[in-house]
Amino acid sequence: MKKNAMINKLSIFAVMILFLGGCGVGSYQARRVDIHHSPLVNPAIYEKGTGDQTLYRYVNPNLDVKKYKNILIDPVIVQKDGELDAKERQNYQILANNAFTYLTQELEKDYTIVKNPEHGTCRIQMAIIDADSAKPVRNTFATIIPISIGLSLIEYAAIGKQMGVGEITMEMKITDANTGELLGAALDRRVGGKQLKSLWSSWHNADDALQYWAKRLRFVLCDIRGGLDCVVP
Q: What is the 3-state secondary structure (H, E, C) of 81-147?
């Protein structure tokens, strides 16, 4: 009986930590990404990012971002190894649609979104690569049971991903919409955090990452052009 009472107290304590501590992050950057998963650019151009930059990045040394007033956003593509069933295809379609929407919502705050390559237009291309859903049952187990929380932390220390959470890899390419000149590119991977309120939404981690990348792109463009009101995501 005493043993059961102790386990119950530990469980309650663990849940309180999750509610009050810093475990509510929707997604965070993984420690590494396979650089060969690069459908948009030659991976040889990439340099490793530092600090809060994407894991790999490229910036054209002659980039003059101030000359671009318009942005053309291509439909977001999905690259996934292996066969997909109908439900998986539907989930990927939703992710692609959401990614396009998030990019539009963020970038239209600073640019005119156009459908044709007008003068002073840069083109944004984005690819979703091998997104994985969180596993709801396993996610609940890793969140509530104290011993599993310990295992989750051990796994994160080793590979940068907690147990039972979603993950998504993204590549983004920015070109001059008229000349095709490559202006910049980024390859990044994010994995899910623990959110008790969203345990049963198995793709929320991937969606959180898409929102982050849209906000991040807006911030980077603002920072490069020397804006004074850049918002760090």
A: CCCCCHHHHHHHHHHHHHHHHHHHHHHCCCCEEECCCCCCEEEEEEEEEEEECCCHHHHHHHHHCHH
Q: What is the pLDDT of residues 6-21, one digit of tens each?
A: 444 433 333 333 333 3
CA-nearest of 65, 66, 69, 43 to 56 is: 43
CB neighbour class for 11 (10 Å; exposed up to 12, middle 13-18, buried from 19): middle
* Angle 109-114-117 from CA coordinates, rounded to 5°: 130
* Separation between Cα atoms, residue 36 and residue 42, nearest integer Å: 9
Count Cβ atoms below 10 Å from residue 101 Cβ, excluding itself.
15
Give the number of other CB atoms < 10 A from CB of residue 138.
13
Mean pLDDT of 140-145: 41
Q: How many CA atoms lie within 13 A of 221 on its CB side?
A: 26
Taking the model in full, what pTM does it have?
0.76
- Convert 39-57 to b/e letters by CB count within 10 Å (16 or more is b): ebbebeebeeeeeeebbbb
- One-letter amino acid at 6 equals M
For residues 35 and 40, give the distance between their C-alpha atoms in angstroms, rounded to a whole number: 12
